[in-house]
Specification:
681 residues; alpha/beta; seven-stranded mixed sheet; 20 helices; globular; Glutamine--tRNA ligase; nucleotide-binding; Glu/Gln-tRNA-synth_Ib_cat-dom
């Protein structure tokens, strides 16, 4: 039992109840059963943390078992990557097992089921079988081969095994109940013929068991006590138990399947098919691209194993599917990196700054703290000289009052260094600033204890000495999708939401202490974010990946877009009250610009659906959303919603009607669909 008092999730409560009802704790055994047909993703990380976490809590073994029953899609590469990911997350398995370890036993059990009249060989096409299965409201009917003799079934099954038939010629089905309300129980498929080379068994087998047949029996052979699956397997539990009933020996532990909710992550996809599409269609560079939701991609980006484990524990286990905002994952990353990542200085959009009163040829090595969160991290020396680089955005020649960075006549502090004041700029023929000239106060060195060093200034800037700076390639990664749920919108391809700005490559300068940085070393670039050395980095060319910013820019952007929608709705009320055509045109142009700037598809779509009602302001806003947004169209609504919207718009205020006519002129499909309504009005 649990060694300490804590609130139990429902799966832990099930285990505790089983222990109370007589299951010996020594019989507890769990498993993580991936199919080696792709790389593991963030959803798998939660499942790994669940199963191995239970193993740690109960001091019980956890098997790593590969469900390698489909040689058409499985490769040794994926087996190796899965093992690597599980180990990197910090877990060790008791035994490495494969469903293919049990192919002979599964075959032998199938022979016994055929002898008992509980399985048969079916020779129909998949289309014929699907038609006979019925529907959720109509029972299935028996096929012509359901009552084949035992002898014929055994003969055909052996010949299937021996490779005498082509793919698809026959299958083996369990003989259960073609009228069951659970369609999975209507004589489910157990075996299919596949003349494919298997990554472990080679060409020994020409038939391969289906997941439902292999999975529960593998659990039984390994004496797994609790087989934990996601909710889509809930309908499979009845079949899982039926198969166990056929082979169960009451002297052994009977595995128990229980289901928990999949925890989907916003602004990403976790379907292996969709992840593969991103790779094969070159939206990303590979399975370990730092924008991918794969564990290998997140590791390469700089996520830590501890942060992923913490994320899994934070979201917990639930009985209902839920969409988890990726901001929570990013919070877990920041929280961990804040403790462990050394602070360094890097300039990713550099402009040269010359301190005109600093002696030429002089250099100083200033003391800088490595990590204020870690008292044992110590200090390092950073070089300072007359010419340095600062961020271009940290300077404005003529700055507003609330600009707390460098401008002409204004003082700022250089991190770990001196107070400087902007004096002049040098520009190119296009008016772009190429150099900033400043002066420094020699008495103002940070930490020197002088009166000048205590002087309060508007802000502090990071910098890098140009004479000592190391050039580096910095890959600025952002969320791969602009929408929080890119694969759930009717009529939309998830690829429509790929973020065109998910990767920007810039050429930066970093402080010389980073010269010895190696793959997966992590740093906080001060005032910018957390960065990790990429595997492409070499001794001659440093490459850094942006892991996460210091702040959640997407949350700020989301709030800004919500405010644009709310402000636009308020402005529409003023639009109706205005007596001047000119004023109304100005208001419409301003709202149109707001709408055109919106990128959050879910926000736009929800705003459209909310504003299809009798309120004239709401109707006008819905018309303008459809007119001025490039991300939403009338067909995103159901047919009855479209008809309601069109009818109410044409019966509303004159200004709303005019907006709908304008929309119809823009979209010929609307003109065609509502031709009669338009003629009547």
């Amino acid at each position: 039992m649990m060694s300490e008092e804590k609130s139990l999730n429902f799966l832990e409560q099930i285990i505790e109840d089983d222990l109370t009802n007589g299951l010996p704790q020594s019989k507890l055994r769990f498993r993580f059963p991936p199919e080696p047909n792709g790389y593991l993703h963030i959803g798998h990380a939660s499942s790994i943390a669940l199963n191995f976490g239970l193993g740690e809590s109960y001091n019980a073994p956890v098997n790593l078992r590969f469900d390698d029953t489909n040689p058409e899609k499985e490769e040794q590469e994926f087996v190796d990557s899965i093992k690597k990911d599980v180990e990197w997350l910090g877990y060790s398995w008791a035994e490495e097992r494969y469903a293919s370890d049990y192919f002979q036993q599964l075959y032998d059990w199938t022979v016994e089921l055929i002898k008992k009249g509980k399985a048969y060989v079916d020779s129909q096409s998949s289309e014929e079988i699907a038609e006979q299965k019925g529907t959720p409201t109509q029972p299935g009917i028996a096929g012509p081969y359901r009552d084949r003799s035992v002898a014929e079934n055994l003969d055909l099954f052996e010949r299937m095994k021996n490779g005498e038939f082509p793919d698809g010629a026959h299958i083996v089905r369990a003989k259960i109940d073609m009228t069951s309300p659970n369609m999975l129980m209507r004589d489910p498929l157990m075996y299919r013929i596949m003349h494919k080379h298997h990554h472990r068994t080679g060409d020994d087998w020409c038939i391969y068991p289906m997941y439902d047949w292999a999975h529960g029996e593998s659990d039984y052979l390994e004496q797994i006590s609790h087989s934990l699956c996601t909710l889509e397997f809930l309908p499979h539990r009845e079949l899982y138990d039926w198969f166990l009933d056929q082979i169960f020996d009451d002297k052994k532990v009977r595995p128990k399947q229980r289901e928990f909710a999949r925890r989907n992550l916003s602004h990403t996809v976790v379907s292996k098919r969709k992840l593969l599409k991103l790779v094969t269609e070159n939206f990303v560079s590979g399975w370990d691209d730092p924008r991918m939701s794969t564990i290998s991609g997140m590791r390469r980006r700089g996520y830590t194993a501890a942060s992923l484990r913490n994320f899994a524990n934070t979201i917990g286990i639930a009985k209902r599917d839920n969409l988890i905002n990726v901001s929570l994952l990013e919070f877990c990353i920041r929280e961990d990196l804040n403790k462990i990542a050394p602070r360094v200085m890097a300039v990713i959009d550099p402009v040269k700054l010359i301190i005109t009163n600093y002696p030429e040829g002089k250099e100083e090595w200033l003391e800088a703290e490595n990590n204020p969160e870690d008292e044992n991290a110590g200090f390092r020396k950073v070089p300072f000289s007359r010419e340095i680089y600062i961020e271009r955005e940290d300077f404005m020649e003529e700055a507003p009052a609330k600009f707390f960075r460098l401008s002409i006549g204004k003082e700022v502090r250089l991190k770990n260094g001196y107070i400087i004041q902007g004096e002049a700029v040098v520009k190119d023929s296009d008016g772009n600033t190429t150099e900033i000239h400043a002066t420094y106060d020699p008495e103002s060195l940070s930490g020197s204890g002088t009166e000048a060093s205590q002087r309060k200034v508007a802000g502090t800037l990071h910098w890098v000495s140009s004479a000592h700076a190391l050039p580096a390639e910095v890959r600025l990664y952002d969320r791969l999708f602009t929408d929080e749920s890119p694969d759930t919108h009717k009529g939309k391809d998830f690829l429509d939401f790929v973020n065109p700005d998910s990767l920007k490559v810039v050429h930066a300068f970093v402080e010389p202490s980073l010269k010895s940085a190696v793959n997966e070393d992590k740093f906080q670039f001060q005032r910018i974010g957390y960065f990790t050395v990429d595997k492409d980095s070499t001794a001659d060319k440093l490459v850094f990946n942006k892991t996460v910013g210091l702040k959640d820019a997407w949350e700020e952007k989301g709030k800004k877009e919500e405010n644009l929608v709310n402000n636009s709705l308020k402005e529409i009320n003023r639009y109706f009250k205005s007596a001047s055509d000119s004023d109304r045109d100005d208001i419409e142009k301003a709202i149109a610009a707001n709408i055109a700037s919106l990128e959050n598809f879910s926000l736009i779509q929800n705003s459209l659906r909310k504003n299809i009602d009798n309120n004239k302001s709401a109707l006008l806003f819905a018309n303008w959303l459809l007119t001025y947004s490039a991300h939403v169209k009338l067909d995103d609504l159901e047919d009855d919603q479209q008809l309601k919207f069109a009818g109410m718009s044409l019966k509303s205020d004159n200004l709303v009607r005019e907006a709908f006519y304008k929309l119809a002129d823009k979209e010929q499909i609307i003109k065609d669909k509502f031709k009669d309504l338009l003629l009547d009005n």
